[in-house]
Amino acid sequence: MLSTLRACALRRVSYRPANLHKQYTYIPALIPPQARTYTTKMQTYHAVSTYRAWRYSLPPTSTVGVVPTMGALHAGHISLARAAASENTHVVVTIFLNPAQFSPTEDLASYPKTLETDLKKLEELNASLPDDVPGRISAVFVPTVAEMYPAGIPLVRDQQVGTFVEVIPLSAKLEGGTRPHFFRGVATVCTKLFNITSPNRVYFGQKDVQQTVIIRRLLLDLQFDIELRVIPTEREQDGLAMSSRNVYLKGRRREVAITIYRALKAVEEMYQNGENRASVLLEKAREVVSSAGSEVKLDYVSLNEPQLLEEVETVEKGRGIILSAAMWVLPREEGEGTVRLIDNLILS
Ligand SMILES: Nc1ncnc2c1ncn2[C@@H]1O[C@H](COP(=O)(O)OP(=O)(O)OP(=O)(O)O)[C@@H](O)[C@H]1O
Ligand SMILES: CC(C)(CO)[C@@H](O)C(=O)[O-]
Ligand code: BAL
Prior knowledge:
Helix 4 links the parallel strand 2 (64-69) and strand 3. This protein folds into two domains: 31-231, Rossmann fold; 244-347, Pantoate-beta-alanine ligase, C-terminal domain (Pantoate--beta-alanine Ligase, Chain: A,domain 2), CATH 3.30.1300. It has helices at 2-10, 17-20, 48-57, 75-85, 115-128, 145-148, 175-178, 182-197, 209-221, 251-257, 259-272, 278-291, and strands spanning 43-45, 64-69, 90-95, 136-141, 201-205, 227-231, 296-304, 321-329, 339-347. It is an alpha/beta fold. Residues 1-28 have low confidence and may be disordered. Helix 11 (259-272) packs antiparallel against helix 12. The protein contains twelve helices and nine strands. Bound molecules: adenosine-5'-triphosphate, pantoate and beta-alanine (BAL). Pantoate (PAF) binds at residues 68-70, 98, 101, 186, 189-190, 208, 211.
C-alpha cells in the first residue's frame, strides 16, 4: 500500500479511499520533503493575478488545501486549517464576506470584520504546528468585491447580472426555505474560489451541514478534481456550536442560545433509547425549544437523508441521517438584531 500511496503522491494523483477500499488515513511521510514549506512566510493576496502567480510557481509535488471562510475566525475555522495542514504541503485560507449570499434584509453590513486578528490567529497556528505536520498556511486570499464580481453584486436578485451557480433542488431545502438566495450565493462564490485557488482538497465545517451536501454535489456535477473534507463542529464548553455570529450574543441571549443544542441532544438521546419515528423525535425538539420561553423561536427542525436531503419518516441505522435545526434568538433591547443560529447532529 505504501508504494501505491507514494506513487500517487509523486504523480499528483489524488489518494482516494475508493482506490484502496479503506478509510482515509493521512501518512505524513508520504509528502516528499522537498515539497514541504516550513520556512515559507504566510503571504496575503488581494488580487487574483498575484495569487495565481504564486499558485503556478509551486512545484508539481505540492498539494494545496483550501479553507473558504468569511473571516471573523474562531476555533472552528482554525480546526479546518489544522486539518488542511495535516495532509497538504500548502494551506490557503480565503477570507471573503460574500454579498451574494446575503438578502437585502440580512446582516451583511454588521457582519464582524476582524482581518488583522484573523491574520494573527493564522500566524499563531503556523507557529504552533509540530514538525511532523507537513503543511503551513502559505497564503491568505482576501479578494475585493470588485475582483470577485466584476459586474457588481447588488443584493436584490433581479438586479444581478453575470454568471451564477445553482444546485437544485438541494438549495431550496432546509436553510433554503428561509434563505432562498443563500445557496446560489454560496455555490457561485465557491465555484469562483475553487477556480482561482486551484485546490487539491477543500475543507468545510460540519456545522453548515447542508452547505457540505451542496458542495459535494457541485464538485461532482461541475467535474472539479477536488476532494471534499468535512470537519467536525467545534463547540463552546456548554455545547454551543462556534460561529462568527455568536459575537452578537451577550448575557441572557448567550444563555438561551444553548437551547438549539439542547433540543438536538434531547432528540439524540431519545433516538439512542430506541425511538426512531421522525414525527415523535421532531416533536421532542419543538417541545424543548418552546419550553425555553419567548426569547427563542424555532425556524425548523428536520430529519433528512444525507444525499438528496429528502425528509425521512423513520431513522434507519447506518444511513447517517441528519438532524438539523435553525433557531432565532430574539432581541431584548433597543438596537439589538435577531440572531439566527443553525446546528446539527448525525444520528448514526
Ligand atoms: N464551529 C465550527 N466548527 C467547525 N467548522 C466551522 C464552525 N463554524 C464554522 N465552520 C466552518 O468554517 C467555514 C467558514 O464559515 P464561516 O466563515 O461562515 O463561519 P461561521 O462561524 O459559520 O459564520 P456564521 O456565523 O456566519 O455562520 C465553513 O465551512 C463553516 O462550516
Ligand atoms: C463557504 C463560504 C465561505 C462561502 O462564502 C461561507 O458560506 C461560509 O463561510 O460557510
Ligand atoms: N457559514 C454560513 C454563512 C452565512 O450564514 O452566510
